[in-house]
Amino acid sequence: MSMNHFDYIDQQILLQIREDARKPFSQIAENLKISNSLVHQRIKKLKQRGVIKKAEFVVDEKQIGFKTKSYVGIRLREARYAKQVVDGLKEIPEILECNYVSGHYAIFILIFAFDNHHLRKILYEQVHQIDGVAGTDSFICFDTNFRRQVSLNSLGKNISYD
Amino acid sequence: MSMNHFDYIDQQILLQIREDARKPFSQIAENLKISNSLVHQRIKKLKQRGVIKKAEFVVDEKQIGFKTKSYVGIRLREARYAKQVVDGLKEIPEILECNYVSGHYAIFILIFAFDNHHLRKILYEQVHQIDGVAGTDSFICFDTNFRRQVSLNSLGKNISYD
DNA sequence: GCTGAAACAAGTAGTGT
DNA sequence: ACACTACTTGTTTCAGC
């Protein structure tokens, strides 16, 4: 299948910058006992390959007032409305993620709202008004037990899991 | 309610570093026509307040082999098994997020697997084996239409939405 | 609470092996 | 593909407003 290939250096660099995007390259170089500029070159290539996209600061949603997190499954009146519903959902800034899914729902979204009342208003006054939406089911998150990034352990191996 | 207070500078800094965690502080200062060191001070305070947690590089899961993304709702045999089930789920590295939720399911998780076959194996051989799990429903993501961070427009205002 | 300059550290590019 | 050096740029701290 020969897709991307990652060696030990790539993997270690990813492990380090992923958790701290502002970690000095020179420090990474020191840890790995390689030159400063090699780190720079590798990261450049990882970007070119599309393995790393961007570095972002993680803002705590709760700290800026978004206390209610909820997943919401959306049922459509008919399947062919999918695209126009997605276009409508995109206009609602509280919706942070939107997926086409298999199973009970056609579309599955993630919403952050100020509180439950706010969530209800978004659903009733905005989502339900989009032409093609038949109904929604909400899965309000009482608590997020954990949240982490994808494992890098399988890199470079290539991968038998059965 | 007097929770956190954010002025224009805080908001602008957040907007800029959120999308590019490695943007030089000096450049931010220039954009806002404030001193280099004020940017530094403000970011330090935002960290202390817990508004920003860390800077992370975003790794493209598909590029490192995780082609199947799925949300999975978990039903419990009895509600009181919740905690021990979460402990079991935490041991499965392909599970990237785990929430207690309202509605049909007790627990709602996000899984990234190599492919559908791998996903099935994780569910059957790991998740379903955890004591307390009655069953699961999967919502496999065919496509992610969009994905973004929470809006910062409500900062500093304080907020009436009804 | 903010600025500005000075000391320090890191990022970048070019050259050679 | 990598390391070394020289150069440019950013970060951090602190005195002073």
TrEMBL record, chains A, B:
Keywords: DNA-binding, Transcription, Transcription regulation. This is HTH asnC-type domain-containing protein. One of its GO terms (molecular function) is sequence-specific DNA binding. The keyword rRNA-binding does not apply. PROSITE patterns: HTH_ASNC_2. Coiled coil: none annotated. CDD domains: HTH_ARSR. Residues 6-67 form the HTH asnC-type domain. It comes from Aquimarina atlantica. InterPro entries: ArsR-like_HTH, AsnC-type_HTH_dom, Dimeric_a/b-barrel, Tscrpt_reg_AsnC-like, Tscrpt_reg_AsnC/Lrp_C, WH-like_DNA-bd_sf, WH_DNA-bd_sf. SMART domains: HTH_ASNC. It holds the Pfam family AsnC_trans_reg. One of its GO terms (biological process) is regulation of DNA-templated transcription. GO terms for cellular component: cytosol.
